[in-house]
Amino acid sequence: MLIWAILIIVPLLFGFYAQMRVTSAYNRNVRIPSRGHISGREAAAAVMESAGIRDVEIIRVPGQLTDHYDPSKKRLALSEHNYDGTSLAALGVAAHEAGHAIQHKVGYSMMTLRQTLVPVTQIASGASQFLIIIGIVLGAQAAGGIFLMLGAAALATICLFQLVTLPVEFDATARAKAQLVNLGIVGRDEMPGVNQTLDAAALTYVAAFVASLGSLLHILMIIMGGRRDD
Question: Which residues are bridge partners to 76 per DSSP?
């Protein structure tokens, strides 16, 4: 029971904490305008321009924190508040996504690996819960064990994807922080607000990895328990 709590409950609580922290940090710093009054779109364009990137489209998308970079389309999407906003939060998020564009241009190995894993991870995400439920219904022995093993393999794929995502996100954040200062978009004394936003966002990726790892270990324990019962 204790091990189950560690593998399931703790990751859930950690994920909740990470989400609360990023929401709090973003809401706090989105209210703090930068002195330069540069918009998120302008900041992203400047960061990419400094790396010689001129073929990435920057678009506005609805929602909050829906920002992302799509390497397959060379498209950088910023949520409405970050596209037009001049806040420290907006500049941090925009520069972070521009950091992904730079990773794509220079051929950052972990980003390349992550993109390679995307198709199989999408399949694994759709199949994992179905396979695990079938396996639990049938029992950990015989046919049920086969479904659980397949579910565990799917979870392992998701876990690997989440693990590879960590250095990709950390590297993009490091690039963003450096470029915001180097290009004079944000003063060094304004960086604490940017750091709070980006560091909190990075924590959500750590939480996602911990959750997927906990789920994988939990299923492996069920499988091993079923084998001992044979």
Answer: 58, 69
